[in-house]
């Protein structure tokens, strides 16, 4: 799969995909014409990278942890880092869930006030 095709299918820009490759998050080969050619499973890997970034992991952390995610083999330090990241994400989910409650209360109050007036 060429990088432009990967960009269209993944929704990730070509520039970002090239950056991922520079960071060794993605691998590609070169065609005789010098174009990047990515293996078929790269789409799933790009989605995983995007998910990890969306979860708040830094690019440095993703670079460090992606090999163990991909292979299932991890050093004790990698496992410790994964536990830290999992716990940080869980805390963030709790914070967001708590924050979501407040707009819900406002919506209920405004809706109730509008029904009472109308």
Automatic annotation (TrEMBL):
The keyword DNA-binding applies. This is MerR family transcriptional regulator. PROSITE patterns: HTH_MERR_2. The keyword DNA-binding applies. Residues 1-68 form the HTH merR-type domain. Keywords: DNA-binding.
